[in-house]
Input
Amino acid sequence: MGRYIARRLLWLLVVIFSVSVITFVIAHAVPGGPFSREKKLPPAVLKQLNEKYRLDDPLWKQYVDYMGGIFIPRLTRSEPSTSYLEDYLINIPLGEYTLRWMNFGPSYKSQSRTVNDVFRENLPVSAELGFYAFLVASVIGIPLGIVAALKQNTLVDYIAMGIAIFGVSVPVIVLGPVLIWLFAIRLPIFLPSGWGSWRAEVLPSIALGLGSSAIIARLTRASLLQVIREDYIRTARAKGLMERVVIIRHALRNSLIPVVTVMGPIFAFLVTGTFVTETIFGVPGMGRYFVTSITNRDYPVIMGTILLFAVVIVIANLIVDLLYAWLDPRIRYD
Amino acid sequence: MKELTRPPTSLWADAWRRLLKNKAAVLGLAIIVLIILVAIFADDSVFAALAGREPQPLLAPMHFAKQDLENNNAVPRWLTHVFPTLKPVGTEGGYAKINDKYALGADYNGRDLLSRIIYGTRVSLAVAIVGPLVSLVVGVSVGIAAGYAGGRTDNLIMRFVDIMYGFPDLLFIILLMALFRSTTSAAEAGTLRAVLTGIDNAMGGMFFIFVGIGVTAWMSMSRLTRGQILSLKEKEFIEAARAVGAKDGRIIWRHILPNILGPIVVAQTLNIPQYISTEAFLSFIGLGVQRPTPSWGSMIADGASAIRTYPNQAIFPALALAAIMFAFNFLGDGLRDALDPRLKGTD
Output
């Protein structure tokens, strides 16, 4: 197990390296620097800006500096600094010294802010949205799948699976406007946009989570149907257990194991899905910032976002795999 | 004596028979055929090309780019009953111009929504057809190369696929589109960039969408193909073919491909909704097709910003998009059940 985790963590480094190189190259291949605008800047200003952000360095050096700033932790005497060069995401005070880690660099567009400022401001909102959507997905998906399986081939099953097909088929950009119109304008229960109050947070969470709830429902149903036919369920029934106990204690527990495997992909889907949802519902998260940063060629924001999300997705997949082995003792990684 | 056997049928004829018994799949197929017809006959370009004249709108009431700023945001009378918040001019607090010339209303530029939805079928359908083709050709070739060659080649290719899997798909496409789109102004004549941009412009911005989808979609296909080949490679009939002296190319083409076609077709059909929604999303955030080419995604984006006052501008393209997604999902599910009845009811 230990060796397996070590190998996976090593693999994580390979993925981060590849993703960062590809992103870096593509972002810098976009013609026109971050400071080329409709109205041309005076050459002297441009030169100074390029110098300030070291954009005249060869590409490989820019890359090494950038990655070094993020990944190499520093131990410095604790003295607060306002320079963009000194803005670290993680600051752990160790007596006289401070351990500083993860400097994602400055934002080119808003020159008084750093990428870390952007993260600090927008990331919690995106994370919150993703978490609520995940709740929606599980709270709707798992019961729906269970009910459908227990009432297989009845009207209940067809309705539940109908809802599931609906959830899979309707993308957020369709669901979003429809939900807004129905529940924020026609019946003004919720707010059509914004964040910070439950009235604003319900609709985007549902819009984002519903698609995943459908996937979970279908998988839960299929898995429970399979488990119900197993011999040990027949044994449990034969020894006279109540049907409720058979289902809850014996069938459900085992049937939810495969459902854990889709949690990885679903997590990745929710993470990237926040981008769409945030645009539609005007949620001030990473998604909206990312899209504008692309049109602004704000390399550090682009790089930082993609790197961060790639890391999150790879780690989520690792956790899911480990969880799977823990839940199902028959699975052993070596 | 009574005949107890039925005449032998091929796998595909058998699957087709099962598919026709599946009501949802038939409904999906019917919707898709309808959408294909609408896309072809949105204007009379089929005949116009033969006669050598400019195409005229046929099914669509007017051309998708025809503006009438006098009638911007106009709505037909029947919509005021469907959307009670749409108050016509003259009533208390009313703001909406009434004009029955537009069956579903007009957008902020005074362009007919119905016509734009009808022309919009072309973009969605093109993605639904080209997306699977690209990922099929690239993914299956890579998968065959990896699975059939085995050993180091296999290892190398699959590790590369693993790395690309770590990339958040949507972010990667956004990044690529930003790269492609920004070349429009900067390309010098005669360079590869200029040629590609020229192709893209001629296609209303669809070429780069195809490339973007292709770049991200082939990976799952190559994994699937490789898995199938690995399980087939050791089967006796492949060994038999090799024993009688068949070459690699013949084995792949005649013996392996026909056997893996089923799962691949099913996987691709189930992927189509994803391609369609990717295009719609890209157009939604302004990195998709170029204006004024109508895409349902960009129409929803335009409509969503005015949803308080003119809900029809977002709701109708959204319904169209939902319809095509439903249709392809139904068909994909049906195809899977038809081609492999063992999988019925599972995912």
